């Protein structure tokens, strides 16, 4: 039997993703060791390999077939735009992609002005402003702490993830427009879906029983 390989996003989603697989009998005990520098883990009995990767790399591993299955946030899927099958919404890692800024920036959005938009998600921002709102904007790519941008005058607004809203509130910003809801998703390589259909469909059924 061929190994099925799983790529899980590191960080916020990792713990819940591992717990989910454990619930359906797929446990990778070595993976829980916080000191390990090992990158890939094997369950010989189940013929499963599993690795944690930077979230934005998960869709790449799955599209190329280096992983058969991936678990990653919808934000990453939208941003990376890879060819793969999105088969399940896991219902955790829930948050929203939003246009945020100081209250005073709301009128720039209403009057379709040429504004600067800072984001870790330039493709999502571009798609929203250009294709959905038909508003020409300048998009500035950042790698983190995006809320700083309107505070220090780098941009008028940001496109970023909002979960509790605490980061916005503590920095005098607010949600101006909601782009879409987000959560963790299971994705499958398109060839694996055909070649390993029975095993993958069983896996999806098993996950559905616990979510
Ligand atoms: N409050 C939140 N902030 C950011 N991401 C969240 C939040 N809540 C849920 N998520 C989900 O968790 C994923 C982000 O995980 P994590 O925070 O580890 O990444 P990150 O900080 O964006 O990573 P990196 O340091 O690689 O940029 C997102 O892709 C999203 O789907
Ligand atoms: O609505 P909240 O519950 O406050 O969560 C949202 C914040 O969390 C994320 O940042 P993260 O902690 O990942 O740091 P980063 O901005 O450096 O990516 C996100 O980019 C927001 O800044």
Automatic annotation (TrEMBL):
Protein name from the UniProt record: ATP phosphoribosyltransferase
KW Acyltransferase (keyword) present: no
Family in the record: Belongs to the ATP phosphoribosyltransferase family. Short subfamily.
Subunit details: Heteromultimer composed of HisG and HisZ subunits.
Reaction catalysed by this enzyme: 1-(5-phospho-beta-D-ribosyl)-ATP + diphosphate = 5-phospho-alpha-D-ribose 1-diphosphate + ATP
Entries under Gene3D superfamilies matching the protein: Periplasmic binding protein-like II
Pathway: Amino-acid biosynthesis; L-histidine biosynthesis; L-histidine from 5-phospho-alpha-D-ribose 1-diphosphate: step 1/9
Pfam family, one: HisG
Major place of residence: cytoplasm
Function: Catalyzes the condensation of ATP and 5-phosphoribose 1-diphosphate to form N'-(5'-phosphoribosyl)-ATP (PR-ATP). Has a crucial role in the pathway because the rate of histidine biosynthesis seems to be controlled primarily by regulation of HisG enzymatic activity.
Subcellular location as annotated: Cytoplasm
Keyword Glycosyltransferase: yes
Superkingdom of the source species: Bacteria
Keywords: Amino-acid biosynthesis, ATP-binding, Cytoplasm, Glycosyltransferase, Histidine biosynthesis, Nucleotide-binding, Transferase
MF GO annotations: ATP phosphoribosyltransferase activity
Domain ATP phosphoribosyltransferase catalytic: 54-208
The EC number(s) this enzyme carries: 2.4.2.17
The record's note on its domains: Lacks the C-terminal regulatory region which is replaced by HisZ.
